[in-house]
Amino acid sequence: MNCAAGTVRVNRLEGERGICRASIPEVAYTSLTPMLKSYSLTLRGCSFKCMYCNAYCISQYPDSGWMYRGYVQPESMVQEALKSFKTSFARSRDITKLNFTGGELSIHILYLEAVTSRMKEEIPELKIGMATNGFSTLKTMKRLVKISSSINFEIKAFDDEIHHAITGATVGPVLKNVEWLMRKHPEKIRVLRTVVIPSINDSQVLKIAQFIQDINPDVQYRLVGFRPHFMFYYHRGTSKEFMQELVKSCKKLGMKKIDYSGYYPSENGFKKHDNKKGIKRAYSYLNAAGCY
After folding, report:
1. Among residues 82, 80, 60, 64, which one has the least CA distance to residue 72?
2. CATH 3.40.109.10, applies to 1-154
3. 3 is in an annotated binding site
4. Is 53 part of any known ligand binding site?
5. N or C: which end of the chain has fewer CB within 10 A?
């Protein structure tokens, strides 16, 4: 099978591996999630190498060395989900949605299509949520949108240098896909989001906000407070004051649909940083880990 889901073309059946290192789609775990009122299915593997990933054991599999569930036949997955929806736990909490997370979902588009089509046969009114980093071909993004009711789309940076430093990938496909999504299918966007990392990518927030504002000001943009994790374990978290000031700055651009979620107990005040310092700090962590 020639994989054309991502921007790197490989033949997965012949053992070739792209950045995601994926072969067959593998399930990390499934769960009933009352907060989201959904049955959530988490898939392994990702097209990014984010230095701050809070799910790196899943996204960086098999390099992480963790053991998870593995491949599950689409029909078996469907029957399991249907059974879970019928449990007293799910019914008492009004769990009626199917939610896919990762890792990155777009690298498993064939599996997603197989599962969702069968689920729709059983429950035509089923709402299906997806989360993506947007790093795929436009063709794959269109397929993802077609099977989704709502999409959480994360934009990690606006400038290519910073995006490459913290993810290992270029930002071009991400911006192209999110622009297409905002123009063609804004009704499918649940939220656009950015994890704000102090002195690393905070200089990107206003650029992303202006980008969104210029294309579709009716789209919700959410800033997510960074909590130390993975290669940024000893990097400072994002304070409440820092998040509030960024939201205020976004509103000064005319943005109305802007909010933030989460912060880290910290004394660090709000201070703007430039691109060069953010790139330098990111690569200092990579150098310390022996990556460069």
Report:
1. 80
2. no
3. no
4. yes
5. C
